[in-house]
Amino acid sequence: MNKTVREQILVIRDSGETNMLDTRTVQVIANRMGFCELVIYLEEHRRGYVNFILTGDAGEEGAE
Questions:
Q1: pLDDT band at 59 (very low <50, low <70, confident <90, very high)
Q2: Where is pLDDT greater, at 61 or 25?
Q3: Would you tell me how many other CB atoms lie within 10 Å of the CB of residue 1?
Q4: N or C: which end of the chain has fewer CB within 10 A?
C-alpha cells in the first residue's frame, strides 16, 4: 500500500461516514471524493486493505 492510498483511507475513516469494513461503501465514498487510487486498490487488494483496517499494518511501500 502506498502513502497516497493510506492517506485516502484515513480521510474516509476520519469522516465517520461508514464502517470501514464495508468495503463497497468505502469504494463508493472514495469514488465520490475522487480517490481513484483507493478505488483501484480496493478492487485489486481487498485483503491488504482489510488487514490495514484491522491491524494498522500498511505493509511495505510498493508491496501488493
A1: confident
A2: 25
A3: 22
A4: C
> φ, ψ for residue 15 (rounded to 5)?
-70, -25
Percent of the chain with pLDDT over 90: 88
Hunting for cell 511495505 — which residue is that? 60
Instruction: Kindly indicate the confidence band of residue 60, based on its pLDDT and cuts at 50, 70 and 90.
Output: low
3 state SS for the chain: CCHHHHHHHHHHHHHCCCCCCCHHHHHHHHHHHCCHHHHHHHHHCHHHHHHHHHHCCCCCCCCC
Cell of 10: 484515513
Distance CA 64, CA 14 (A): 24
